[in-house]
Amino acid sequence: MLENFSEIPQALKAVSQGSRWDILAIDEFMTAEIVYTGKELLLGMYAEVAGSLPQKLEIPDPEIKVEERDNKIYLRALVSYPVQGSLVYKAMIQKINTFRKFLGILLQTLQQ
């Protein structure tokens, strides 16, 4: 379990390639989990924000699902990757960064 998302690349380098594993990263705004099932890598991300969904909010990635319910905004993404070496790790980090950037924009918009 990590409390700093910047530690994810080092954690990915340290995991065993032959066995199943998972990495959970949590901060005050979101949760991300990377799971190696033995066949594929799964990346799940989740965030929950109080407020109403802004009307002009552009979602930067079709894999990020946004839902508003009971005056809360829920962001979710679940992405499956084939096991193809360290390039997949870079793609996962980029996906996490896209999710975090979108969450940051949403939080800024809600504070205005």
Helix content, binned percent: 25-40%
CATH topology: Yope Regulator, Chain: A
Q: Determine the strand fraction and express it as a percent band.
A: 35-45%
Rg over C-alpha atoms, rounded to the nearest angstrom: 15 Å
Distance between the termini: 33 Å
Structural features, described:
With 112 residues, the protein is an alpha+beta fold. The protein is 29% helix and 36% strand. α1 packs antiparallel against α2. The chain is elongated and about 45 Å long. The protein starts with 7 loop residues before the first helix and ends with a helix.
Compact description:
The protein has 112 residues and is an alpha+beta fold. Helices cover 29% and strands 36% of the residues.
Question: Which terms summarize this structure?
Answer:
Yope Regulator, Chain: A; 29% helix
How are the SSEs ordered, and which strands pair?
Elements: H1 8-14, E1 21-26, E2 30-36, E3 40-50, E4 65-69, E5 72-82, H2 86-111
Helix pairs in contact: 1-2
